[in-house]
Amino acid sequence: MKPFRSPHSVKYQPLWIRVALLTCVSVLLACGVCAGQGPEEKTATPSDEQIQIVADKLVTHQKEQFAEFMGDVRARQGNFVITSDHLRIYYRENPQDRAKGQQTGNQGRVKQVVASGNVKVLFEEYTVETQRAEYDLDTQIVVLIGENSTMTSGKNILTGSKITVYRRSGQIQVESSPQQRVRAVFYPEEKVAEENPQK
Length: 199
Hints:
- This protein is an alpha+beta fold.
- The chain has one domain: Lipopolysaccharide (LPS) transport protein A like domain (lipopolysaccharide transport protein A fold, Sandwich).
- The protein contains three helices and ten strands; from the N terminus they run αββββαββββββα.
- The protein has helices at 9-42, 95-100, 189-195; strands spanning 52-54, 57-61, 66-77, 80-91, 110-123, 126-136, 141-153, 156-166, 171-175, 183-185.
- Residues 6-44 and 190-194 have low confidence and may be disordered.
């Protein structure tokens, strides 16, 4: 007696194998695409985050490519917060508008934030008080200008006439003026631990 064979098994087997292979290839390609997208997501910088600003008054200057906020200004980008009397947001000119010789209401990418008057800045573990703060979003450099500009981290205090913070590297540079030398107060970690013992 001959074993039973489906008349369709030979006809449809190659198609079934092709479908299975196509499915496997599709899954592998999808994994490859996802794996390729991972590093791009990790390279996102703080400068890509949205900036939220509240103030009493806003004046835009399209020709000079900046917007000016006045009166009890508060600006936030992620964990970076600035409060001040005045704040200017400088934009990078839109190349497409320039090529067309037009000025539109669409602002380009923000390149710099400048705050002045009773400036207070909060970022990472730092609290800053100064008269003027300049923040470059591309280089992630914060420059604090003004006599008695103070930068505090916990109990540690830095004071100078100009403080430059390189957020990417964590480097801090403090400069003096003819009227004032640089001052620093540091508390060793072990001393702080003794004053605040863990229970």
